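User: I'm new to structure prediction. If I give you an amino acid sequence, what do you actually give back? Let's try with this one:
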Amino acid sequence: MSIDATGPNADQIEFWNGDAGESWARNQQVVDAMMTPLSSAAVSGSGAGSEDRILDIGCGCGSTTINLAELGARVTGIDVSGPMLAIARQRAEVLKLDTDFILADALTYSFDSEYSLLFSRFGVMFFADPIAAFRNLAGGLNQNGRLCFLCWRPARENTWISVPMAATSTHLPPSEPPDPRAPGPFAFADKDYIKEILDSAGYKGIEINPVDETLTIGDSDDIDQALLFYERIGPLSRVIAELQESVRATVRDAVREAVAPHMTENGLSLDGACWLVHATR
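Assistant: Good question. You get back a string of structure tokens that encode the predicted 3D arrangement of the chain. For your 281 residues, that looks like this:
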């Protein structure tokens, strides 16, 4: 499966079909295990049931698509990542669930008004034009349709990333602070910004509530499992990949020292802080 890296989200399409998408696909089981508490909170909080026809936006390797389909709902997953969507298809086929998948950009894809629920777990923060994206997605909702998505609160509240990133930052050259609203994991950290987007896109009944869960990386007291996770997945992996090898060793040691106090016999245990967002058409 492939998709052309064109349109407003061309950079994201290229990114998620390159090394990053391949790495997420290879490490799907580790990511799923870490995200389990948040996936459960999002699926439960969505109120999804067997009567629903659901679009899972940015479904990745399909874990939440499967979770929703196991409730008896009919679920379509959409994502720009060919490598990740291939894993999602394989998993759903094995389980013989009522699912299908679309390799496309939800910002520009032409939807029919067939869905009762637009759902996403961390799949909506990467749009180059979020207002246009949510307007387009609204076209996929039926008359009584609703929206539910989970997104990260500020990085400083998410110790799973702030602890290792703080350890890394002292070894990096000075740089300009990134645009906090640029497409990326923490683009929706500000709940007022979320409300502004959804208001502008025509949604009503907007509710934004905090969700806090303990996240576990790895399944034992082997700290190297956690270090491999950070090198392969997420924001820190991008930083590490751009470093010279001589600096990488220093960064690895700094991250090891920073996360060591948070190791348990079941893995690295740190905080995940999110917003659970609800709205109606």
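You can read the tokens as a compact description of the fold. Here is one thing that stands out. The beta strands are 53-57, 74-79, 99-103, 115-121, 141-152, 204-217, 263-264, 267-280.
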